Hints:
heterodimer; A: alpha/beta; 10 strands; disordered N terminus; B: alpha+beta; 4 strands; 8% strand
Amino acid sequence: MNEPKNNASIISMFHIHKSFGSYNALIDITLDILKNDFLFITGPSGAGKSTLLKLLYLAEKVSDGVILVDGMNLSRITRSKIPFLRRKFGIIFQDYKLIQNRTVFDNISLVLESAGKSRKFIEKKVAGVLKIVKMERKQHVFPPSLSGGEQQRVAVARAIAGEPGIILADEPTGSLDSESASMIMDLLRRFHYHGSTVIVATHDKELIYKTGGRIVHLDHGRMVSPGQA
Amino acid sequence: MAEWYRRDRLSGAVMFLMKRVFQDILKNGYLSIITVITISLSIFIVSAVALFFLNINDVMNSWKKGLKIMVYLKHDVTGTQLPEIKRHLVRFYGIKSARFIPKEEALLFIKDSLPKKLSILEDLKENPLPDAFEIVMLPSYSSWKTIEHLAEKIKAMASVDEVEYGRQWFGRFRNIFNLFKLAGYAVGGLFFVAGVFIVANTIRLLLYSRRDEVEIMRLVGAKDNFIKIPFYIEGVVQGIAGGIIGLFILFITFVFISANIAEGFSPSYFSIRFLPFKIISVIVLCSMFVGWLGSFLSLKQFFKT
């Protein structure tokens, strides 16, 4: 099978299929995501947006096709290399996925600790990212005491702490009020401005038109139309 | 990379690990206490068995050291033959001394040792007892096999009628001791397996209660070992704690029991002792291993799924 070759692409997908039993979640997706792209993956619920993101950080494996992430072929990646792949991404989940019995500081430092960074570096870095998301006063607080918007800001801080090249956001504003949602999108735009590739899966059309960027529309697992907002 | 930076990274990682381990132990206090209690009980039982065998072995050794072989001579042996028989006997390897006991002395001994004067002994017209030699073994030659071998050789002598060395009761005692020893190994093995299963299940429960956390750690790029190592340390810490507590309970029990035993027995007969440092170290290492193995088994299964 020929693999796509594009030096400007940070992610290349070539005829991707993903099925769960007899259900086809993604059908024949071919897509190039360029460095410093701001890409929206949109479509109704069940269109395959989250599945597409999961394939990128290997939470799910493709049934068929090839995915290249920064030159790594995900079909051939060994188990021991998966953590290194995941460190290329900063992932923001709709349900935040914060460890409830660890403080805000510990949740963020986890990324850096697992990458083997020094204590001094971690302390400095965590303080820095908390300042960016305006959560510096809550570093010793546990997630259950935070509002949804605050928890999502902590999740954003965790996603950027490791200075990843790619930020994946799966419905990042899905459960937030409009003020918190616009703050999160401002943060994402800021990272994009500083050189990160940002991929956002959302069904919120208003958010897309407000933010602007490239759009990939999925419907029943098929890519319907690439476009520009 | 500068040395100080490497040291900082290493000490930071170790600090982080230890912090996580002790945080986890405290957070899961109930499970941790159950695990430590179970390990300590297992260690207590296994160590008590070991202590029992150690002391029984000491008793047997002390008996063997004082073991005497009685060599009964044939009735037709004359007094002129005795020096030659004695010379022959002491030439055997392992014999410390050989004392001649004339049959008159033996009869006198029996009479004196009986609580009441028995008329049957008074009415004896002839002394039915044989002349004998009492042989004392050298301590280094007092193994069961040596005694048996020596007894056979002595019995083969023309002037010897019978050789007696408490074979029956000592043999029976030895058989019972070996049976107990076997049961002790079985109990030890059983508690080892039980300990491993309990630690494995505790760690498994811990993993399931924290599966979201493990999942998040994996998603943010933590390597499996980064996630596993604290659980390993947790298992080892629980193993060591269980081992030390089990041995401590045993020691307290030992002090209490030995005080009572000391009242009933003369210390010159035998003295009981606690497990030596070497065995204590082995037991603590074993309990550490139990903790580690329990963690290893549950982590292996958990990460497979």
